[in-house]
Specification:
There is one protein chain. The protein has about 290 residues and is α+β, with helices and mostly antiparallel strands. The chain has helices at about 120-135, 140-160, 165-180, 190-195, 200-210, 215-230, 235-245, 250-260, and strands at about 15-30, 30-35, 45-60, 65-70, 75-80, 85-100, 115, 275-280. The chain contains eight helices and eight strands, in the order E-E-E-E-E-E-E-H-H-H-H-H-H-H-H-E. Helix 1 (about 120-135) runs antiparallel to helix 2. Keywords: DNA-binding, Transcription, Transcription regulation.
């Protein structure tokens, strides 16, 4: 029998969250939103926005004139009143855009993208969140708010826990550039130059951080983007290959089948108007 108490130095309190809107967005090169003109709810000065980028490259422009780029798997927290506009900056930008009101004195890491080493679990939780919202039942919406609260506190803890070692920060810089330049044919020597070390040292640290070689990571990134383009846009295989810097459709198809187990021609295309825009109408929260 084991009975080991875990003692807290002080009481632990988790403050609540009210979700106002949740958007599941696939954005292409033409996507641009003016804020708050194009939103569906009145702007609250107390509201915050969470931008969870799954892949691709987007830019958020603030009223101060600052631009914040979201590249690859990252999360960005903003004050809603500071946002001027946001847009896709590359081939595509897949993201969740969540507007929420925080109840309680929680310090959020605002205006600084937090890169996620393993976004898979967060993606699953956001998928469950959206499914709960779609049900429309009050209890399911409360469940959705609870899911988001959990993930938000994870991100806050991640950003505040400790500063990452310098080598990992430099690896994150390289990964961000990969997501922003998927149409280029990057050699490992160029990645190592950006990282600031020899190819051998760069390969070692990159493998330690990602579990993949630089070449494998960049190829998988391009193939994931190819899948999204074929699934959610009007591009055919040849056009996707050109956009992503493959020499031709044959080389894309060969690599695609090796990764996914089926050729790109078998990707089921979703209609363009099937992109999810999920709204939570919040009538209980105001600035009063």
């Amino acid at each position: 029998m084991k009975n080991t108490p875990v003692l807290l130095e002080s009481p632990a309190t988790a403050f609540g969250i009210t979700l106002r809107s949740v958007w599941d967005i696939y954005a292409d090169e033409s996507y641009q939103v003016l804020w708050p003109r194009d939103k569906k709810l009145p702007l609250l000065s107390s509201a915050h926005v969470c931008v969870f980028t799954r892949q691709g490259h987007g830019v958020i422009r603030l009223r101060s004139g600052r631009e914040i780029h979201a590249k690859g798997a990252c999360v960005l927290l903003l004050e809603a009143r500071d946002i001027l506009s946001y847009a896709c900056e590359g081939l595509l930008w897949e993201l969740y855009w969540v507007e929420f009101v925080l109840h309680g004195p929680v310090t959020l890491p605002l205006n600084t993208p937090v890169l996620l080493r393993d976004p898979t679990a967060h993606s699953r939780e956001f998928s469950e969140l959206v499914s709960c919202v779609r049900v429309g039942d009050t209890n399911y919406q409360a469940y959705a708010a609870a899911i988001f609260t959990k993930v938000l506190y994870q991100w806050v803890a991640l950003s505040n826990h400790h500063a990452e070692p310098a080598p990992l920060r430099r690896i994150q810089t390289v990964i961000s550039q990969m997501h922003g330049h998927t149409d280029e044919r990057w050699a490992v020597k160029d990645m190592a130059r950006l990282y600031g070390a020899s190819e051998q040292q760069f390969r070692k640290v990159f493998l330690q951080y990602t579990g993949q070689t630089p070449k494998e990571y960049f190829m998988n990134l391009k193939l994931d983007m190819a899948h999204a383009l074929l699934n959610r846009s009007s591009l055919n295989v040849s056009q996707a290959a050109f956009k992503l810097g493959f020499s031709d459709a044959f080389h894309l198809s060969k690599a695609f089948k090796s990764r996914f187990g089926y050729p790109p021609s078998e990707v089921i295309r979703e209609p363009r108007d099937s992109i999810d825009n999920v709204y939570l109408m919040d009538t209980a929260v105001s600035d009063a």
